TrEMBL record:
<protein>
    <submittedName>
        <fullName>Aminopeptidase P family protein</fullName>
        <ecNumber>3.4.11.-</ecNumber>
    </submittedName>
</protein>
<feature type="domain" description="Peptidase M24">
    <location>
        <begin position="310"/>
        <end position="524"/>
    </location>
</feature>
<dbReference type="Pfam" id="PF16188">
    <property type="entry name" value="Peptidase_M24_C"/>
</dbReference>
<dbReference type="InterPro" id="IPR032416">
    <property type="entry name" value="Peptidase_M24_C"/>
</dbReference>
<dbReference type="InterPro" id="IPR050422">
    <property type="entry name" value="X-Pro_aminopeptidase_P"/>
</dbReference>
<dbReference type="Pfam" id="PF16189">
    <property type="entry name" value="Creatinase_N_2"/>
</dbReference>
<keyword id="KW-0479">Metal-binding</keyword>
<feature type="domain" description="Peptidase M24 C-terminal">
    <location>
        <begin position="534"/>
        <end position="593"/>
    </location>
</feature>
<dbReference type="InterPro" id="IPR000994">
    <property type="entry name" value="Pept_M24"/>
</dbReference>
<dbReference type="InterPro" id="IPR029149">
    <property type="entry name" value="Creatin/AminoP/Spt16_N"/>
</dbReference>
<dbReference type="InterPro" id="IPR033740">
    <property type="entry name" value="Pept_M24B"/>
</dbReference>
<keyword id="KW-0645">Protease</keyword>
<dbReference type="InterPro" id="IPR036005">
    <property type="entry name" value="Creatinase/aminopeptidase-like"/>
</dbReference>
<keyword id="KW-0378">Hydrolase</keyword>
<dbReference type="Pfam" id="PF01321">
    <property type="entry name" value="Creatinase_N"/>
</dbReference>
<comment type="similarity">
    <text>Belongs to the peptidase M24B family.</text>
</comment>
<dbReference type="GO" id="GO:0004177">
    <property type="term" value="F:aminopeptidase activity"/>
</dbReference>
Amino acid sequence: MSSYEDRLKALRAQLVRQRLDGFVVPLTDEHMSEYVGAYAQRLAWLTGFQGSAGSAVVLPEEAAIFVDGRYTLQVREQVDGAHWQYESVPQTSIAAWLKDHAGQGARIGYDPWLHTRGWVSQATQALALKGAELVAVDTNPVDAIWPDRPARSGAKLVVHDDRFAGQSAAEKRAAMADWLTEKKADAVVLSALDSIAWTFNIRGKDVDRTPVALAYAIVHADATADLYVAPEKMDEAVAQHLGNAVRVRDGVNFATALRDFGGKTVVADPERAVAAIFNHLDEGGATVLSLRDPAVLPKAIKNATEIAGHKAAQARDGAALSRFLHWIAVEAPKGGLTELDASDRLEAFRKETGLLEDLSFDTISGAGPNGAVVHYRVEEKTNRPIETGTLYLVDSGGQYRDGTTDVTRTVAIGTPTEEMRRRFTLVLKGHVALARAIFPKGTRGGQLDVLARQYLWAEGLDYAHGTGHGVGSFLSVHEGPQRIATFGGGDEPLVAGMLLSNEPGYYKTGEYGIRIENLVLVEERAIPGAEKAMLGFETLTYAPLDRALIATDLLSGDERAWIDAYHARVLALVAPQLEGDAGVWLQAACAPL
């Protein structure tokens, strides 16, 4: 099956064999992960779409692919519109589309290991309006026709030392056991890979860019636990680290174990545990409490060790990025550089730290119009030269044992236009407004989102992505539950110790993209005379902003002062790590406005 058209035809033929009139193909795995292993890249294999979020529906005569605003341009470049309809979420949903497009009495298949129970309920109700039904499959039809589907990773688990974690796995399990006792529950099922990694202080190499291992876990109210993992992934060091209170079991026995909780009360997270987990618990006679995974919030609220580690990682990463920005300032105007050249060089600078474990995501290296593709991923066929008179956007990050980084810079190659400078400065003003925000405890990220958009909105401009996401500690670069967004989240109260990104942007289709991203730490703020407990942000990412793109006449005095203070901090942290021409360049790049 050399073409995507052939694959679509083969899937339709397989659906006939399985007596199905349609099938839903999400981009996720059995753990509801955002980034998944190669074995779970069903959507990419079927359609050609390379983004990190999306779903598809295949019916006998039509098919649709669903993506959000980050991928509006990308999906049209990668997925053939002759065979696929492009649908935008949240404006529509798979359930709504199926209600309008599924035939009377149709049997629409889904894999219960790839969807939440809430999604199943929503889709079932929508299809019932057409007299159609949602059918759980035992064999995923995409897997049945994927001849060279990659095997699951067999990489070994690794210990995440307490000197990075700041809290032992035993202490985390004890806190979880206390929580279970409070909820009058016997056990909790952990299926989110980052929750398992955090709870047991282990990491893995089963997913590119995210240091997690394919596993499931059940933590009991007596603080013992069962870890379900492929036996070949274990070694003696990990076994000793886990200790006798953690029983290591073969991952193939996980589903059976869920059916052994008859008469007991078990917690499962309706957002992170797939429908199949609930189904097996129900079949076994367990009483199921639908509550949020108890690792989610403490994982998001970094302890003092994690905060210190993150700051060290940011200082190191900021120096690598600053070396890159100096390099591109010198080399790009000469001509001959491409997006791939730049992303490779940036990775090399990070590797030169000697502490890089991996990138935290595939670098977004977007020149000119490719910078307007929000989650662009460069490959040979899209690789553009970085040309004079354009903007270059680079969004990148590193995975270090002591922290995870994520930073975006936009730079002018040659002389930028006045429009580029004006719109960059509008984005910068929003970035500064959010960075300087003071807000009462209990404030949600969604309440702050407008601060970053206000100056763009005033000129009829906007961006189709959230303003901020949580970030893990040597874990997922996109971590919940906190977000700064007006849609798709943003309702979690911000708490001191949470890490988020601050990344407003602007994208002019076919011409250029602008994004400015730093990571920030929520911290308590003492305000003289305050009648409420207040919070603010400490910026943790340090690398220079492109002065050529800053229209200083659009800035207030307070904004100028913030930028100057930010650049002074860049010099203090980064300059001691640079030598020679790079150090001289940084002094000029960070000069007061």
